[in-house]
């Protein structure tokens, strides 16, 4: 593994580093050493003043704007990150870190426990969103980046962005929070529990000890992905795209094949997901999302998480997002107002539900570009 702390100026450079730690976790344990995988784009300024950290969502990874090594598909946010794009890699040095607990190179249940020489499995310590942020801060210390020009994230990435601003306010000049929330609702937790139970009910899960046989609980993980994917869409979007259309047949088969197009779509989403993600990582990260409650971390009052901060905030929601609906963003804006923090907020229209932040959205591009350019002028 490379431990070279210099940012390479080439576009889309993948790196991994093993840091000695220890990383103190919210659960009370210590993790040492800590593997962190990340990608860099653009060139770091001599005074390290142009660094932007991108935080990814639940099933995302560090390959934000470069081809994925497993699927070969373009990065998950190529619409937003790149030369001349809103997060402009000609102006900024962009860093995207694989979240702690994930399975694309950072320490997680699929990585090797140095004490046993075997994958951690379910013996990996329970983690939180704030633990992910602490690991990212440890990496930035290693890279010599004391302060970030901005932290940008959508969905779980937005939660990490909020946690960055609350945990390290002096290190974040600007924060862009898209389609996110300050805590999970009971409905969010319920959907995640369905997914976790699907994984653990798969006989191949075997208590999380499936790595040696290279035979993971693919069926359970696919069902978990299907259930979650429904929450990323909107009823209007599903109706427009699929309606009740059948799979090229004029009559119902009255069986259990994928008769409807929407069934086939969801099954494809589940099956393609298992090729790139680890079931145990899914258990750990969904649990971290469910534990997240920024107000509870600060005495039960959300405004106290941002008291005295000098960070500039931009919040964006989408009108058809029922996973993290607009009222969730408004509650964060109200808390920021109560704390006296500078904040702008916009609700955008999209038929695509929660996934809208990942899809083509000229309005979102304009908002992010304008906010970052305003930060440069300041």
UniProtKB/TrEMBL annotation:
Per the UniProt record, the lineage of the source organism begins with: Bacteria, Pseudomonadati, Pseudomonadota, Alphaproteobacteria, Sphingomonadales
Could you give a GO molecular-function term held by this entry? homoserine O-acetyltransferase activity
Main localisation: cytoplasm
> Which pathway does it operate in?
Amino-acid biosynthesis; L-methionine biosynthesis via de novo pathway; O-acetyl-L-homoserine from L-homoserine: step 1/1
Please name the gene that encodes this protein.
metXA
Tell me the compartments it is located in: Cytoplasm
Q: Which residues form the active site?
A: 155 (nucleophile), 321, 354
Q: How does it assemble?
A: Homodimer.
Asked if DNA-binding is a keyword of the record, the answer is: no
Keywords in alphabetical order, please: Acyltransferase, Amino-acid biosynthesis, Cytoplasm, Methionine biosynthesis, Transferase
Q: Which reaction(s) does its UniProt entry say it catalyses?
A: L-homoserine + acetyl-CoA = O-acetyl-L-homoserine + CoA
Q: Where does substrate bind?
A: 225, 355
Limits of the AB hydrolase-1 domain: 50-326
Q: Which family does it belong to?
A: Belongs to the AB hydrolase superfamily. MetX family.
Q: Which NCBIfam families match?
A: homoserO_Ac_trn, PRK00175.1
Q: Does the keyword Secreted apply?
A: no
Q: What is the protein's given name?
A: Homoserine O-acetyltransferase
Entry function: Transfers an acetyl group from acetyl-CoA to L-homoserine, forming acetyl-L-homoserine.
The EC number on file is: 2.3.1.31
Source domain of life:
Bacteria
Q: Which SUPFAM superfamilies does this entry report, sorted A to Z?
A: alpha/beta-Hydrolases (SSF53474)
